Amino acid sequence: MTKQEQFQAALARAAADGCYIIGSGTVRAGEHAGRRCWSVSGKSGHPYLVVQVADRQLQCSCKSRVFCKHEALAFTRIQEESTAAVAKVEQDRRYFRDLQWSEMWAGR
After folding, report:
1. How confident is the model at residue 31 (pLDDT cuts 50, 70, 90)?
2. Which domain holds residue 41?
3. Contact 19, 42 (CB under 8 A)
4. How many domains is the chain partitioned into structurally?
């Protein structure tokens, strides 16, 4: 099974089990301080699990030994956030390209 197939299978398991991202943030204390993290619901409302970015890889607190559904949801969120950030940068670039120098400094 390719990595893309593993990812798609993990997303399918997440959808079938009703898993979703509860929240995201940054670990604030301890040896993992500064890592980005996501809380992801477990199967059918079970307590949440935590997915963290560590050494450029996703690590989940579940016991899965393969690419798990929680990591797949976090990765999907990362892709969505990246796409939105790129779109914002492109929008800003177009705005400043079209803005006349005199308009930029008017009133100063």
Report:
1. confident
2. 3-99
3. yes
4. 1
